[in-house]
Structures are given as C-alpha cells and as structure tokens.
Amino acid sequence: MALWRRNPKYVNIVLKDHAIRYVEAKIGNSPEVKRWGERPLPAGIVRDGRIIDRETLAFVLEECVEEWKIGGQCVRFVVPDPFVMIRSLPLPSHLSDEEIRGYLFMELGESIPLPFADPVFDYVVMERTNESLSILLFAAPEEAVSEYAVLLEEADLRPVAADVSPICAYRPFYVAGQAGPDDHVLLVQFDESAVNLSAFHRHLPLFMRHLPLEERERATALVDPFIDVYKEIERMMSFYSFSLQQGKQSITRLFVSGDHPELEHVFTALNERLDVSVERLSAPFDPLPDRFHLAWGLALKEGRADDDR
C-alpha cells in the first residue's frame, strides 16, 4: 500500500463546433490557472454539438492530447448545449432524499416527459416543505454524452465527470463574488456559433435558451448584425419577470461571457440598450481570455463540492 497518494490531475476540456480548449488549474483558496490551450476546428466537423466527422475529430483530439501532454489524465468535459435540458419539477412530497433518484429513474420518459429517450441526469433539491417538494433537473441523451466520453477515452484520457455550460460559465462569477443569492441574473454566453441564455437565482439556473447563430457580417456603424439576439435577450428578461416570477421579480444583473470575436461590441451594445447592470468577469479573477472562461469554470468545479456549484 502506498504511503503517499498523489491527487489525480484533472484536465478540463470544452469541445465547441469551432474549437477545442483545455485548462489545467490549481484549485484552493486562491485558484490558479497552470496551463491552457486551444485548437481551432474546421467547419463541418461538429455542427450544433453533433459530431459529423468523427474520424477527423478523433485525429485532431489525439493531436491535442499529445501536444498538450495530457495523456492518461482524468478529464471533465462540458455536454454540448443543444443536448441539455434544464427544468424545474414538482415531485411527491413524501419522497426522502434517498428516494428521489430512484423515482426519477422510474418516471423520466414515463409520467415525466422528455424530448429524448434514455437520459442521463442529475438534480438539485430546490425547495422542500411538509406539503411540497421541487427539484431542478438536468438531463441529456445518454447516446450523445457517451459519444463524447468514448471519444475522449480513445484519445488516452479518462472521463470522470460531465457538466453543463450555464453552471460552468456562471461559476467564475460566483467564485469572484459578483453574484449574490438574492440576485436575479441573466447569463449571456455569446459564442462564435451560438448564444446561450440562462437565468439564475440563488445560484441555480432556472431555465436555458439556446440560439444557433448564422454566419454574420462584422458589426458596422450602420447595422448591428446581432439586433435579433438583443431582442431575444429582452424577450427572455420579460419571460423571466412575468412568466416565471409572476411580475414580482425581474432580472437585476446580466453577465456576459463567450468566445465571439465581437464580444466587446456586444458588451457595449447591451450596456447601451438595457437598464440593468451588464458585467463581465472582474479583472482580479480573470486570468484568461474570455474564450477560456467556460473551461476555467469547469476547472473551478473541483473546489465547489461543498455547495454543488
């Protein structure tokens, strides 16, 4: 038996339609990024999270593992947004904490409808009283998640956890102290190929909306190519206020992150257009370019087991 055990190194990988990125970090009282890297992906290999050209993607991923010297390490990855469902659910109040998972195994796809078969899932208890029980459910099709896990295994990595991008993107803001439990936050993940909108309260994502982006011209002084996205953001803010909160609460802060090359322009435009505080990750806790924030948030998962964020 070994007298000294080395903690395993964790690599945190994000596979987008247009890029593969990774971050290694030292997590503790003062989280520190140790290494990071990225590799652009040619168009058409991955589309809306679906692997179209598996052979080429496997070859590129193997090259990345060799170049970044991460072979044999434990890896966390992000489930592509188009596959993810986030939904609040009422459950029978008599269920104990130990019984919830078994109940979901039995009822998902039966009395609890899903847009796909054979889900993998996780959940958080949102509220429990003597009369009621509600959870926040995270689900994705097992086939899609397994396809990415097998791809990573074949590239000499050891998949140990999968996460969803809204929580990963929110986590750096949370750890930086920019998000309080009473805030009503709209998180805007503005990427090169899609925009993801998710509303958070008490540090939990209450809904998610995924918007694929078409090829767009760069912003000009006359026409902003993202005007429809801004309108959708405003619609989601109204939906949150009047449908989810019955007009009693509204979005109080808006966090912006992502890898779109026009992110600075988007940030400025939203500041001018909206009446709420529009923020990016604060400088003291921003060790990497914006496009790495998702992988950075995945790395920060290591130190948040105490509160599941």
TrEMBL record:
Pfam families: PilM_2. PANTHER family: CELL DIVISION PROTEIN FTSA-RELATED (PTHR32432), ETHANOLAMINE UTILIZATION PROTEIN EUTJ (PTHR32432:SF3). This is Pilus assembly protein PilM. The lineage of its organism: Bacteria, Bacillati, Bacillota, Bacilli, Bacillales.
